[in-house]
Design a protein that fits this description.
With about 230 residues, this protein is α/β, with parallel strands linked by helices. Strand 2, helix 5 and strand 3 form a beta-alpha-beta unit.
């Protein structure tokens, strides 16, 4: 159990009261939220996709807990530009990046089967969701840099319980424009594909140029990979 429940003024009866957690963290600015999560919880899981807005989230981590591990889900379908961007941010922000990957046989099946072309939910489940499940068992809270890039995301609370672990979205009330200006203010590099019209960047087969989330899973009634929404 994290320090939040041992030392906070919040009563034990509120341990699973997500509303109380949201009300406690909502007044904080984004950097204060990052500081608070490490203050209040012991076992914190940080993941990043190294997509278009990841530099903002990772810079905030750099300012609060730079030595903390950052897990990168290596689906084996990432753009070469994303891998280069990951290396650039790793060096600039002195990040401790650790890769987590799907099982090789399951990943190979999705490659041979072209699973993403007809059942993208299943492809995401095998290559993104399952690899993270082993990590969540050893952590108390999972922190994601997801921002409010869509109506669905903007309606997301700061905290929620999903998949047996507490989820925390410290930047969920940040717009794409705000993330963009943050990156400029701190002279952070942009993802190389942004200049080619990509606003949201995931796996090669399921990402096209487009504003906000419109370039993801084109042709499918799908805008999220299932990790968080």
């Amino acid at each position: 159990m994290g320090r939040f429940f041992e030392y906070s003024q919040i009563q034990i009866a509120d341990i699973m009261d997500l509303k109380t957690l949201c009300e406690t963290y909502s007044p904080y600015n984004h950097r204060e939220r990052m500081n608070a999560i490490f203050r209040d919880f012991d076992r914190v899981l940080i993941t990043s996709s190294f997509g278009a807005t990841s530099a903002t989230f990772l810079h905030l981590l750099h300012k609060t807990r730079p030595e903390h591990p950052v897990y990168f889900i290596d689906t084996k379908y990432h753009f070469t530009e994303t891998i280069k961007y990951k290396h650039e941010l790793e060096k600039m922000l002195k990040l401790d990046i650790r890769a987590v990957a799907p099982k090789s046989n399951e990943n190979a099946y999705t490659q041979m089967d072209y699973t993403w072309s007809y059942e993208p939910d299943a492809c995401c489940y095998v290559n993104k969701v399952l690899p993270v499940e082993a990590l969540t068992a050893s952590h108390d809270v999972w922190v994601s840099g997801m921002i409010g890039a869509s109506e669905t995301r903007r309606n997301q609370p700061l905290f929620q319980m999903k998949g047996g672990i507490l989820r925390f979205y410290p930047l969920i009330d940040m717009t794409e424009e705000e993330a963009h200006y943050y990156r400029i203010a701190y002279d952070l590099p942009e993802h190389p594909l942004e200049s080619e019209g990509y606003s949201s960047i995931g796996c090669t087969h399921c990402t096209k140029p487009g504003a906000s989330r419109s370039g993801r899973w084109a042709g499918f009634n799908k805008t999220e990979c299932g990790l968080h929404l």
